[in-house]
From TrEMBL:
Originating species: Saccharothrix syringae
Source species, domain of life: Bacteria
Protein name from the UniProt record: Uncharacterized protein
């Protein structure tokens, strides 16, 4: 879920110093970003994530349009749409993601000074 205003955001800092504002509802689930800069979260419920056979979390990339997961769709040319806006997205959003940079800090965004 992409933030709509600064009172709904947390600024995440990544290992390379990059910062991204994300909605407070997903901030604690974001583990990092992939090589394309897309946010990665564990697949499954917050209190019951899915793991690979080696015990590591199964991460999925969130769509750049809405910060949502992808889902298969017979109506989409590429077969995958964003779960939130239903726009067609790359097939990578329907499979496992690979962590490129981990989250190193999370800071609540200050409210917008103009109001």
């Amino acid at each position: 879920m992409k933030p709509t205003n600064s009172t709904d955001t947390v600024e995440l800092t990544f290992a390379d110093g990059r910062r991204i504002a994300v909605h407070t509802m997903i901030a604690d689930r974001v583990r990092g970003i992939d090589a394309d800069g897309d946010l990665l979260v564990p697949l499954g419920e917050p209190d019951n994530p899915i793991h690979h056979d080696d015990g590591t979390e199964y991460l999925i990339a969130l769509t750049p349009c809405c910060h949502a997961s992808g889902k298969g769709s017979a109506m989409a040319e590429g077969g995958v749409v964003c779960r939130s806006c239903h726009d067609e997205v790359d097939s990578k959003y329907a499979g496992p993601g690979t962590l490129a940079l981990a989250v190193t800090a999370a800071t609540p965004e200050p409210p917008n000074a103009s109001g």
